Every structure is written in structure tokens, then in C-alpha cells.
Amino acid sequence: MSTHSAFTSPGDRDYPVEERDLSEEQNEHLTTSLRAVRDNRSAPPALQDLARKMLGGRLEMKDVLDDPAGYRVLTDGLAGMRESWRSMSPQDRQALRTKVEEKAEEAAADGVGAAYRPR
């Protein structure tokens, strides 16, 4: 473990979330998705905070889904992101898909999430 990761702030982990009911690939994908939400300036602040808590190991997915407030943050935040996706042109969607695939290939070359491929 590098000295940097020993001093990261909560929500800045260098290893995947470990949800017991998910496979390793699913946990890697969840971690990548949570980091993307955390770093997305257009994501609602409550959703970013939820991502930080999950990445920091302070909250598990089951806790989010069992708590009405957590569930509301998750669904409200995703609804806004879904609307953003729907409002994109087909060309912009394809450009984003290409970018995600390129990042996945780079990660696989580095040995991170090598088995996962975005849909």
C-alpha cells in the first residue's frame, strides 16, 4: 500500500467496495460508478455525499436501500442523471460510451477491473 492511500480522505479509497452479495467485477463496477458520481460536479450534493460515505466504508448499499432518506437521495439523484442522459443527442451518447470503453481498456491494461466491460 502506498503512503498516499494511507492518508486519503474518506471516500477516496484505492480498492473496490466490498458488498458481500456482489461479485468482484460488480464491486469494481460499483466502485467506479461511485467515484464517477462523487467527482461529477453536476451530480446533486446529497448523492455525492452518499457516494463518499459508501466509498469510505461508512455506508453499505443495503443501508442505503433500507433507509427511506438514503433511498430517496439515490433515486432522486439518479432520476436527474437519467434525464441528462435522455436529453443528450445520439452522437453525444455514443461519444460518452466510447470514452467509457477507452477508460475500461486502459484500466484493464493496468490490471484493474480486467474482467469488467461496460454494456
Walkthrough of the structure:
With 119 residues, this protein is mainly α. The chain has one domain. The protein is 65% helix and 0% strand. Helix 2 (24-39) crosses helix 3 (45-55). The longest helix is centred in the middle third of the chain and has 20 residues, at 68-87. The chain is globular, with a radius of gyration of 15 Å.
> What order do the helices and strands follow?
HHHHHH
Which bin fits the share of residues in helices?
55-70%
Number of strands: 0
What does the largest sheet look like? Answer: none
Number of domains: 1
The overall pLDDT average reads 78
Radius of gyration: 15 Å
Class computed from helices, strands and strand pairing: mainly alpha
Distance between the termini: 31 Å
Shape: globular
Total helices: the number is 6
Low-pLDDT runs? 1-7, 114-119
- Strand percent estimate: under 5%
Region (Disordered): 1-30, 85-119
Biased composition (Low complexity): 109-119
Biased composition (Basic and acidic residues): 11-20, 94-106
